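DM between two lab members

TW: hey, do you still have the ArfGAP with RhoGAP domain, ankyrin repeat and PH domain 1a entry open?
JB: yeah, one sec
JB: this one, 1091 aa:
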Amino acid sequence: MALKQEELLRDIQKCFNNLNVEEDKKETVILREREDSIDIRCTGFPDFTEDFRQIVKAGWLEKTPPKGGKIYQRRWVQLDSEYLRYFQTIKEVYSKRMVSLGSVDKVVSVGDSRFELHSQSRTFLFRAESTQERNDWVCCIEKILSDRKHSLEPRNLFFRNGSVNISFEGYMEMLSPRTKVYTLINKDKLFLFRSHEEYFQGVGITDIDMRMANVRDGENKRSFTLTTPYRAFSFMVDSESEKQRWSEALKECVSRALSCDGLCESIWRVPSNRMCADCSSSMPEWASVNLCVLLCEKCAGAHRSLGQNVSKVRSLKLDERVWTDDLIRVFLLLGNGKANQFWGANIPPSESLCSSAHSEQRLEHITAKYKDGKYRKYHTLYGQQEALNRALCSAVQSGDLLETLSLLNCGVDINCNTGIPEFPTPLSLAKRSGQTVQAELLMQNLNSESFTPVDKDASIRSQSGYLFKTASSAKPITDHKTKTDFSQRWCSLGDGMFSYFKSEQSHHKCGGMKTSEIICLSVNSPGKHGYEHTFELYSEEGRVYLFGSDDGSIIKNWIQAIAMAVLPPALFDVCGTCDRLGRLRCTEGNHGIGWFCLSGFKLQVLLEDNVQIIDLRKLLTLNLSDSAGSMVLVWRGGPLHLLADRRPHFVGWQTFIQQRSGAGDQPLSQQQLTDLGVPVIIDRCLDHVTRYGLMSSGIYRKNGVNSHVTKLLERFQNDARSVTLLESDYSVDDVASTLKRFLREVKDGVFNGQENNDNWLRAAGLENRAEKIKRYQILLSNLPDVNRETLKALIHHLVCVQHLSDENQMTIRNLGIVFGPTLFHTDGTDVTGSQVVEELIQNYCSIFNVSESDLKRQLNMTSVILNKHKSQRPLSRTPSSTICAVYLEKKTEGAEVLVQVTADMTVVKLVSVVLELKGIQQASEEFWSCYEVLEKDDMERTLHYQERVLPIYFSLSCHSHLLIKRNPYIISIMRYLENVENLCKTGPLRVCEVKSESSKTFHSRHCELSGTTFRLHKEQQGSQCEREYPVKELKLYHGCRSKMHPPTPWGLILIYDKQQWYLCCENEDELTEWTAVFYSIQYNGDIWPSW
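TW: and the structure you got?
JB:
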């Protein structure tokens, strides 16, 4: 056994001795003892991130330099259970600084988005990109500090209790960069410190994992070099004897790190595990942890050629940390014997592999066995997807690992829905059932291709062939490339690399990149360049590569192969069908990264571990470039912040997203849409006419001002989402004419083309009414979704208009005369189009499958409003009664409640009417209020129950609305006032004067609310009064304006004329007390009726 260890060690040493580790001899030799950190750059980077330590949180932060510098430095920061480390870049392996959490006394939030880490020797100040991100860091650090409180060794602040095993220590001089460092060996790592004092203070520079290190002599007798796969560390000591002691200690550490015989002996206890699963060589020291087979070194090399997504090869000796107790139990319970009952069930003797097979034979056999599944034992449910998924849900709750292995590699969906909301995936189900070994097997296969359906062609994961390529560029390719700009290249994709050669026979690579470095793949529209079909690859370095071919099938295969090589498995379903894919920096993503696939109008987004689908046409807002240059998409699922990136792929994403978010000069299906699938322009126009024009005489027959209509239509076509229709800006006739012009001019019309127009017109000629209605229903069902929803919304609106025909003179016939030519794009000489519109209005419920009772209820409500309107005809421009739109509990699309509000209607009456209309009975101890909601500022004002509704309604801006909901504070307010003898409130509050959107500075001020006055003092109690306002002239709003980064979520906003003050309370009780006193003073104690 010792002999084998020495051979392995020699092989590793030989490998690293061949690495080019020449140091830069031109570097200026300057001792930099005064610098805070040492710049240890890697000369090579790992191909993939290995889980050396359990990272709790990682991300970009800005930190202040030592000695109190003012310029922040951007650093990649990692937090684990023992240390906080920060690195120069995200790729670096060796940190610039590492702070032991054992030396940290506390973590404190300061300012808007900063926090301080207080250690024994120094305070580290970090700044995050947002307050939320700062809070996440503080929360994670506080939790670790809390967990460590009782487990630290009092005399050592750097190492966790029980982890101190220092075998050698002392000062050495590092030669590149040249500086003196205190160094110690603890277990299997070498730690670097600026000084011995810093070690005792719990602050270090970095640590070096000795498992992959090699020690060799330096250029002189007192120096030596420690070589790792990522860089070489050169050290010099004071004497040859000291160098000898250091070399021996480091080599012993390497040998100790490589030794892991206990694991081998444990797994080899199972007889079948003593032979390689593929060639039967003895004592295999490698394993494929997802395929569950033990391998000899030669077969492990063939498995690595399959790629990490097929076979995850790990060493029993070198990868000690991978081998958890549950993973070891997987190999003890399955073993090569049971695993080969599945993988090798059908291997004919002529195709079996022997231990003397050469490398080509091994690769061919192993590819056929595991990647192609040639010899596997197919599950009895193979091909029956739902049955396979149900079988997996059952298996993971049992101890049958072989059944689970078989299902995972016969087409089951590893993330299938279990049907149990609390445990939606097989993994969660296994954990719930206490089957930790099953859970381990599932986790090892989560990102593996082995569980994908086997009927997919395995060859799509690799590709080779001739393509035509242009020279790479550092800028987006916007100009047309002719065929003369392209050169033919042999391209190859496989083993995590995309490479291209001058010809198939050439061994010299012209260029290439790792698939992990491809950050974007974009498919061009046919004919954009000289070759009919082209695609672009964007690299992490900011280069753009253009490839093309006249054969569309060739390009399609390449796109599918590259997509599967680049994307996470959760997005494999879109491979080959998307127009653009890749990763972007995203604040909502996992470690600041999100994966995006754009196909048509659908943007699939992978954040954390779930895929969300966003219809770009239905975005609520789209800001292509905010103040920081970032792109912000707001949809019903919330905001999505895509951080600005100077590399060329980001501009392309902006262009694609803008194009796919809807355009006003396109057919209905390509317009900007509401959440219900109706074009925004149509929805806004119908809403405006419903609010202000239902009783306007001759609505839709009268024309608006042509210049106003043209201007409004242009605004809608440029960006419909940004258009807000105010009654003061546009008359109902202007808006109605804009709607008619849009419907007449929109491409393909509402009925989706001339051929469909003719079908509808022919249906109108049927004499049998029942047959005609059925034909209309069929034609309606054949329309695209957007056209169908648009027609339904329009006809529903016309039904309401004709119901008020006694007032507006727009009968069914008149509406047919107006909208027949408009919808069918005719000149009006043929009345058939008008007939179709009339029949759609008359038979609205039958054709559109709408409940007649629901429609009747709406029309009856309209009739009541009409009768009141006739008896209370307004005498001035501001009506004494009007139809007001209010919302119940929350504002959602189509959820508004239309109420006839008279001039004397109070808030309490409005609440009563709305609750009655919705059939809601108020329970005891349940109180409802009406709120004025300012959407843009995230704040709301509780209206007093005696306030008149109409003046408030007419004062609302386009970003405001009235909302009726339960009042959760009124009981607390009234009970507080019952126990207060002296009605006043004083104390410190965090205050910010809101002068602009950039106002974010909060100061502690002493505030006083007494008598009839609110006073604001400069500092503490007794100081000079800075501002004084009469309470009855103030408006009090509640809210948390997140854009201002308030220190607490309990905010009060006071508005006096054009001045605004944002006050932050420390807790909810304090908020209630200030509100109670304010209301009591403002309303003379009459806060709530009959309390």
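TW: got it. The chain has 30 helices and 44 strands. The two ends are 87 Å apart (CA to CA).
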